[in-house]
Amino acid sequence: MATVSTIVTTKAGTDGLRPVVSMRGIEKRFPGVHALKNVRFELMPGEVHALMGENGAGKSTLMKILSGIYPKDDGEVLVDGQPVVIESPRAAQDLGISIIHQELSLMNDLTAAQNIFIGREPRLRFGRLDEAALNRQTAEIFASMNLKLDPRAQVGGLTIAKQQMVEIAKALSFHSRVLVMDEPTAALNNAEIEELFVIIRRLKAEGVGIIYISHKMDELKRIADRVTVMRDGQYVDTVSAADTPVNQIISMMVGRALTDSAVEVPDLDQAPVALEVKGLTRGREIRNVSFSVRKGEILALPG
Ligand code: ADP
Ligand code: MG
Fold this sequence. Notes:
Blueprint: H1 2-11, E1 21-30, E2 33-43, E3 48-52, H2 59-66, E4 74-79, E5 82-84, H3 89-94, E6 97-100, H4 112-116, H5 131-144, H6 160-173, E7 178-182, H7 190-205, E8 209-213, H8 217-223, E9 226-231, E10 234-240, H9 246-254, E11 273-282, E12 286-294
Parallel strand pairs: 3-8, 3-9, 6-7, 7-8
Antiparallel strand pairs: 1-2, 1-4, 4-5, 9-10, 11-12
Bound molecules: adenosine-5'-diphosphate and magnesium ion.
């Protein structure tokens, strides 16, 4: 570690900042799929860097390589400017890299605190679990996140949002400097998204670099500093989130310009009726329901 910090102080750029993560020339093949082709990616400390692309573009695969879940076939990964080999999630953790998965990976039967310190619980004499220390250390992490949650709460009984917060707390317990969030808001409601954003901003202020995978353009504009777009396993470009119009980012994702005709709205009053339902009834559940849908129309059935 001493070597690394020496190099940080001697080789840092004029602004004192250099990427905490650089990935270059990354290649990955699965049977029948060339998932990553010469992909590069860079993350600065304290940056929220959005990784965007259509389904199957290779975003999760790239992040799984960074977090030691998949081996890469070729290319290099540098952390603080130093080439590293990340052959396991444990190795990633030791480098300060944590991933919050799309599908959460906590143990439902354990408490929040037990999940966070699983496999490295504080112990008393004779190896007995030190519950008090476990819950106190967890409470300290929650407090640092401004998160109101009982360390003894059983994870299976928590909302998805709270479970995600527990995952983030776990990442912070490893003193992570790089946090990968793979579609973190997919299962969150609006209030929960706001809570998550507060935490992301706090982490950012502390210098944690965050890689944020999302399809939601409004979120990207609100939270991201830069955006890297991938398409078909390839790197497309990295642009400023604030200065790049949403249309341009979408064009980069789909690989063609968005023309007006692509979003032209048909005149629905003139459109022929595609389906008409009159007086539909089934027992007590459905009584005398009528509706019609015109060609090109989107009909919502709220309730
Ligand atoms: P994204 O996260 O951008 O939606 P992925 O990284 O999940 O894309 O997938 C990129 C490509 O790699 C897709 O074609 C996907 O089917 C394939 N792929 C991902 N993981 C595996 C795997 N474990 N085995 C085989 N193919 C995979
Ligand atoms: Mg994915």
